[in-house]
């Protein structure tokens, strides 16, 4: 019986030792991988600064293949493609960078430079004053920030409401009641905004046209009419897919179907 117990303890110790070794190996692999990605990124920057833009692009894209994704990486990649007058690629990576760092002014400015290289001059659809106010409010913070704010507000509400329940002085109870009510409404508002932003992110997909040119038809067959023609670098909302046809909407609100077009999605 004692021998069996010792044997089972030995097995447990071996398992624990194997688990520790496995964790150590995984940690080393992760550390080595991160160091390799950082080295590739720095080599890409070095190549870019020397004017070797094609080499820089190859190094940056290899970094992405290894699993690194950052606004800085996409921004540098967009700049490298811009230097080579590669319109669609440049716009695509600037848009990817904007998604990760929407408030970065350098990304916004360089993205506008890249968009100026496109053939299609599409005026955005005018928005109502109510929509402008909504957009300003919703874009004031990122989805993560709104979510964090709602969590903080619910904790503040809980603390203030508990204080209201346990306080005995009428004046303090009144103050804490109104403060808890205010924090609760702030929680509701921020949670609603975070929820709507999350739904928009999940349900709305944009892409960049990589084909040099594409006709947009009124229906998903060539018996309809050509509504308009788009050229590479145009950003569009992706609405639906039917065989080789894709339904799209551009910034001015125009919609249609485009056939066999190379469109690269911006969705993560």
Q: What features would you describe in this structure?
A:
This protein has 268 residues and is α+β, with helices and mostly antiparallel strands. It is 62% helix and 13% strand. It has helices spanning 2-49, 53-65, 71-83, 87-100, 105-115, 129-138, 143-166, 170-203; strands spanning 206-209, 213-217, 226-231, 235-242, 245-249, 255-259, 263-265. Strands 3-2-6-5-4-1-7 form a 7-stranded antiparallel β-sheet.
In short:
With 268 residues, the chain is of the alpha+beta class. The chain has helices at residues 2-49, 53-65, 71-83, 87-100, 105-115, 129-138, 143-166, 170-203; strands at 206-209, 213-217, 226-231, 235-242, 245-249, 255-259, 263-265.
Features:
7 strands; seven-stranded antiparallel β-sheet; disordered N terminus; 268 residues; alpha+beta
Mean pLDDT reading: 84
How many strands appear in the DSSP assignment? 7
Stretches where pLDDT is under 50 for at least 5 consecutive residues are: 1-7, 26-33
Helix content: 55-70%
Tell me the radius of gyration: 27 Å
Strand line-up in the sheet with most strands: 3-2-6-5-4-1-7
Q: Largest sheet, described in full?
A: 7 strands, antiparallel
Shape: globular
Question: What's the tally of helices?
Answer: 8
């Amino acid at each position: 019986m004692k021998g069996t117990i010792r044997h089972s303890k030995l097995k447990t110790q071996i398992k624990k030792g194997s688990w520790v070794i496995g964790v150590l190996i995984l940690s080393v692999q992760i550390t080595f991988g991160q160091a390799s990605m950082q080295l590739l990124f720095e080599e890409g920057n070095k190549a870019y600064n020397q004017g070797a833009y094609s080499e820089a692009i190859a190094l940056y894209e290899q970094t992405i293949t290894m699993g690194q994704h950052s606004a800085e990486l996409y921004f540098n990649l967009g700049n490298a493609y811009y230097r080579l007058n590669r319109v669609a690629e440049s716009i695509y990576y600037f848009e990817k960078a904007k998604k990760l760092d929407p408030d970065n002014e350098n990304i916004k400015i360089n993205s506008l430079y890249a968009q100026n290289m496109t053939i299609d001059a599409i005026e955005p659809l005018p928005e109502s004053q109510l929509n402008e106010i909504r957009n300003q409010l919703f874009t004031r913070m990122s989805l993560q920030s709104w979510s964090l704010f709602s969590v903080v507000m619910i904790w503040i509400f809980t603390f203030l409401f508990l204080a209201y329940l346990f306080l005995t002085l009428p004046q303090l109870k009144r103050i804490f009641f109104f403060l808890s009510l205010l924090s609760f409404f702030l929680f509701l508002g921020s949670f609603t905004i975070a929820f709507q932003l999350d739904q928009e992110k999940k349900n709305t997909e944009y892409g960049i046209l990589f084909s040099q040119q594409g006709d947009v038809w009124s229906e998903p067959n060539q018996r309809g009419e050509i509504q308009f023609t788009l050229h590479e670098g145009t950003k569009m909302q992706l609405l639906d897919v039917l065989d080789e046809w894709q339904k799209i909407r551009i910034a001015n609100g125009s919609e249609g179907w485009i056939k066999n077009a190379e469109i690269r999605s911006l969705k993560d």
